[in-house]
Amino acid sequence: MALYPKIHEKVQAEIDRVLGQSQRPNTAARESMPYTNAVIHEVQRMGNIIPMNAPRQVAADTTLAGYHLPKGTMVLINLTALHRDPAEWATPDTFNPEHFLENGKFKKRERACLGEQLARTELFVFFTSLLQKFSFRPPDNEKLSLKFRVGLTLSPVTSRICAVPRA
């Protein structure tokens, strides 16, 4: 958020409007905070810490992009390619929370993971709690980087950040 001060301020304005400074973030508030929800999803899309999904097996004989895949074939999904696909995202290489908004409302997508709703709720509460109480910025005379260390996962390069209590 420290790299995108206008987006940071817009999230905090939504938090202030819906929760104020004293009400704790909760599941009910999430529905009233589409922009915050969109920013969280965009952070996950752009931050993409797991570039390749876990191996999967084809459940039945199928054809994909002209290739025959027999039942049981192991496939790996390149999540980075999906998260940066210009056919899916209007601005694939730009941090843009609008990817997840439609007419100002959060655009829900179909998902299958049973634990996803709990994880998304926890992430919402954590993220919103931090931005409710703090503003984040780089230290004076320092620039933050979007570079990652590549391994089994992607992790950000080490940097410092200032968490400034909000008045």
UniProtKB/TrEMBL annotation:
This is Uncharacterized protein. One of its GO terms (molecular function) is heme binding. Heme binds at C113. Its cofactor is heme. Belongs to the cytochrome P450 family. InterPro entries: Cyt_P450 (IPR001128), Cyt_P450_E_grp-I (IPR002401), Cyt_P450_sf (IPR036396), Cytochrome_P450_fam2 (IPR050182). Keywords: Heme, Iron, Metal-binding.
